[in-house]
Description:
mainly alpha; membrane; 10 helices
Amino acid sequence: MVGVFKAYLTEKRISKKPEEFGRGSLKGLAAPETANNAACGGSFIPLLTLGIPGSGTTAVLLGALLVVGVQPGPMMLQDHPDVFWGVIASMYVGNIFLLILNLPLIPFIARVLYIPRPMLISLIIIFCLVGVYGVRFNTFDLYLLIAFGGLGFLMRLFSFPAAPFILAFILGGMMEQSFRQALTISNGSLSIFWSSPVSVTLFAVALISLIFPLIRKKGHKKSEQEGVKA
C-alpha cells in the first residue's frame, strides 16, 4: 500500500503535466500498479531472510510455514533449501501464468469501464461496507468508514491531495515506534540520527527528494512566465 501511494506521488512530482493526474493519466495508472507488483516480490525479502513479514500476504504465508514446521529466517536456506528455492521459483512461475492469463483477458477486464459510473460506485461502496464489517463485526467501523469517506469527498472537493494524507496515516505509527526505539538505543541522544554514514545518506536522499520537486516547480513557473512575456 505504501509503495503504491509513494510511486503515485513521485510520478506526479516528476511529471511534466501533473495537472493530468487524477483525470485518467496513463502514467498515474502505470506507476502505482508497477510499484504494487514490485512490492509483492520485495515483501518476501524480510520474510525469508529475517522471518519478518513484509505485508499482510507474507504474514499469512509465515503462519502457514510455521504450521508445517518451517521457520523463516537466516537459517532457512540451510535447514529448508527446498522450501526457500521453491518460494522463489513460484514467483517466476506465477508471473508467467499471469502473463498467459492476463493478455487474453484484457478486453474483458476493460469492459468494466463500460459499467455506468453510479452503478460502479454503488458496488464499490457495498463491497467496502461488507469488507469493513466482516473484519470485526462492529458497527462503529461502518461509521468510521462513512466519516473518512466524507473527509475524502471534502478533500477532493477542495482539491486537497488525499495520497499524502493516507501515506502519513499509514506510516505515522511506524515512524513514532521507530523513533522511540532509536532514542531508547541511544539513551535519549538525538546524535544517533547523524552519527552513522547510512543515516546521513538517508537524510540526504530524503532532503533531496523534498527540495528537488520545489526547484522543478519553480523552474516550470519561471519558464511559463518567460513564455507569457515572449
